[in-house]
Amino acid sequence: MDTKVFRSMSYGVYVVGSVDGERPVGCIANSIMQITSSPATVAVSLNHDNYTNACVAKSGLFSFSILGQESDPSLIGGFGFRSSKDTDKYEGVDSEMVCGCPVIKDSCGYVVCRVIDRMETATHTVFLGEVIEGEVSQAEYQPMTYAYYHQVIKGKSPKNAPTYLPEEDTPQQGGKAVWVCQICGYVYDGDPLPADYRCPVCGQDAAHFRREMR
Among 161, 169, 104, 178, which Cα is nearest to 135's? Predict the structure, then answer.
């Protein structure tokens, strides 16, 4: 089976938020869909290994902030390649609490949901949520698609994402040198890599990049 076919499906890029007690937690997700319009319900898929998964199950609440093409790409690195278990992902991020859940202001908008059901798969939990709040944050933003993230930002999927492909981590041999961030997978198309360069997705310095031939 050619798993790349799934990239032809329509996905967005979202920051899913919840709480660990009173502490905000969150992660990146790309598998969210609206199920019904009245009452408004949505479904979100979260990996069992994501700390946010357990927090959603315990609190019964989750939010998702819809990232736009204009959103700071470092949000993807900060929320997608670290764990909320030992990291305050919201430190330095312009956010607020709405109906008990954290939401990101640098986004197209947000939705807050109350969990009404769940389904377990081998690796992910699908939470069904009834919408209790939702607002547009930046009306001028264009929603970021999963394809845009890969093709324009040139990032890769976190390993816990439903759409992660193992071959993304396999260097491709070729005749062109590029530098690849070992934290988030961002590709710097050039050689050499500037000594003072920082990854635009996760903010890591040049020491976290590896030279590959593609």
Answer: 104
pLDDT level of residue 174 (50, 70, 90 thresholds): low
Residue type, 35: I
Tokens (6 digits) for 19: 């709480």
The arithmetic mean of pLDDT across residues 162-188, rounded, is 68
Local structure of 95: helix, strand or coil: strand
Does residue 104 surpass a pLDDT of 80?
yes
Domains of the chain in start order, with CATH, are 12-153 (2.30.110.10), 171-213 (2.20.28.10)
Tell me how far apart the alpha carbons of residues 124 and 45 are, in angstroms, rounded to a whole number: 6
Distance CA 106, CA 91 (A): 14
CB 90 within 8 Å of CB 137: no
d(CA 183, CA 80): 10
Provide, rounded to the nearest whole percent, the portion of the chain with pLDDT above 90.
56
**CA 102, chain centre distance (Å):** 15
